[in-house]
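dumping these here so i dont lose them again. two proteins, back to back, each one seq then structure tokens. dont judge the mess
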Amino acid sequence: MQYTSAMLAFWTERASAIEQFWFLFYLFLSGMLAPLEMFPAAVRAVVLWTPFPYLIYFPASILVEMPVNYTQGYLTILGWSLILLGLNRWLWRKGLKQYSGMGA
């Protein structure tokens, strides 16, 4: 995720600010600051389809043997990995065209 968001540096000098903004979502939605069980059920249902809980919450739940949906977890990780890989490759090709157009 970070490498893909870093591709924005091809177009803007504010890539660091975008990364810091993205980090706010990571802090709150990954379970780092508060467990996801503290969220309302409707919010938690939406959050579980984002990539953030699978960076900290899901592995930690497995380690402490909490009941988790393994199928949803691994499929969501695979899905987000494929989405971000595709986005990464597309941004890389577009960024090289943008950068090479500047005389490099």
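---- next one ----
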Amino acid sequence: MCYHADMEKEDILHLGRLARIEITDKEAAALQKDITAVLEYVSVINEITAETGVTKKVGAVYNVFREDEVTTKDNEYTDALLAEAPATKGRFLEVKKILSAD
């Protein structure tokens, strides 16, 4: 079932006030067409998903990505990185202090 709803100009002006955006009558008319087109598109998507039986899952979402793996050897890039740094202190990069003790 395709749901179709036209946004009234008053609704668009009201949304603009809620968002603290000044919208002219001319802009409201253009937005009215755009919003109606978006609502029609969303209703088509809803209709397609309803026909295919796609359902939304509610519950915990778990990481579906691959496991983390270490792909480099310890200190493999340390010397190259330290050679490019403007200042080092031993095996560490030396940077300007940006936090105060307060």
